[in-house]
């Protein structure tokens, strides 16, 4: 325990000593101007990044709503086909009931396949939109990082001149 406390105290003194020995370079007008310009450019880039992210999120939410709507419609259509098939079985004559049941099963299977295909297509479009949104966000973040690097380089150039 004593060693731990001693190590922590030694670390505290070491950081305090190193913090006191660092000197800040004299800020010239050009450096101050470059720093202000850099902050302005960075703020502008971050603003663009946030706008891009908001647009991408909006696209995704619209696509998700549209996909859910298409899925619900496909499900409703399938349920309607199931009901029609059940009704045809009920209306069929007793001797034709087996044949009607077989036909109804085929229609139900077809309706299920059609509904599943529509749902898969809706999910596919949603995923595509999500991937595009993620790519847009990543591109915007990369552009912001580029602006930050350029701004930092400009500040260093201005500082190096004097």
C-alpha-based Rg, rounded:
33 Å
**How would you spell out the order of helices and strands?**
HHH
Helical content (DSSP H or I, runs of 4+): over 70%
Number of strands: 0
Explain what the structure shows.
With 162 residues, the chain is mostly helical. The protein has a domain at 31-79 and 114-161. It has three helices and no strands. It starts with a helix and ends with a helix. The mean pLDDT is 87.
List the keywords.
162 residues; mainly alpha; 3 helices
What is the element layout, followed by pairings?
Layout (H helix, E strand, L loop, with lengths): L1 H20 L7 H63 L5 H65 L1
Helix pairs in contact: 2-3
What is shown here, in short?
The chain is mostly helical and 162 residues long.
